[in-house]
Amino acid sequence: MSLQQDTELEKHLLSRCYDSQSKIVELLQDRYSVTGSQKSTILFKNIVTDTKKPKSLLHQENTQPTKITQERKKTTRQVLREYISGTLNNQRKLIKKIQSHNRKNTTGHQPFPIHQYLQKYKIPNFDDFFQMNKLWQKYAQDLIFQNGNSMQSLSSILPRLTAADFNGCLLTVLQSRNTNVIGTRGIVVWDAQHSFILVVPRNEDSKEWNEEKSRFSPSEMVGGLKVIPKKHTMFGFDIIDPRNENDCYGFTIVGSRFEIRSVERSGKKFKNHSVDDIL
Hints:
InterPro entries: RNase_P/MRP_Rpp29-subunit, RNase_P/MRP_Rpp29_sf, Rof/RNase_P-like, Rpp29/RNP1
Family: Belongs to the eukaryotic/archaeal RNase P protein component 1 family.
GO molecular function: ribonuclease P RNA binding
Protein name: Ribonuclease P protein subunit
Distance between the termini: 116 Å
Keywords: Nucleus, tRNA processing
């Protein structure tokens, strides 16, 4: 039997490791030659194949690492707090300007350019939040009316209202130990734990009894945001009857009993007990 026939299997195995046919013949001759190594084993090369899947032609490598800016790291709550704090600070500056102008202009012939400064200090406008209140009205109607028709019983309505979200609700301060805020009304922009942040209208719309007034305080001229503490304060709000928009149902909030975060209030059960410390 010739060498060619005896080494067919070895050639087949070596062809998996070597591309050159002459290299395979050289290895076999060296192994079986009298002057060769005459080793009883054959050493195969360890070929590492690329196991990665071929990438699409549309694939593009991102060589630059993605950097998260500081603005994106801020949470919504932090941004809202900064906005409220900055707006209240601007309102205080504007009120001081009006007071300074009134002291110098005692005759009243030169009115203060309020609209110019409202835009300069970016004071929020009450009219811009009407749509937010309309959305809240629809939300409240779904809570107390069954399929938009009959009103549900108070035993089922009150627990729903205590757990409701009041962002967008038009609130009016009915009673308070702080007499300066009585009559204030505005739309809730943030239901905080210890206070309601309201956006209030200006001038004659700021309070119910201001409609007949001709002169207004600097605070009433500015409007904007107001922080009304919940403690020792009673708030009122109305829910429009979807069957007749001229009718509405009035409800009262005892602020001292609402000093709970809105996200936690939904899981809290309110108990009937004495409320001697309302005001």
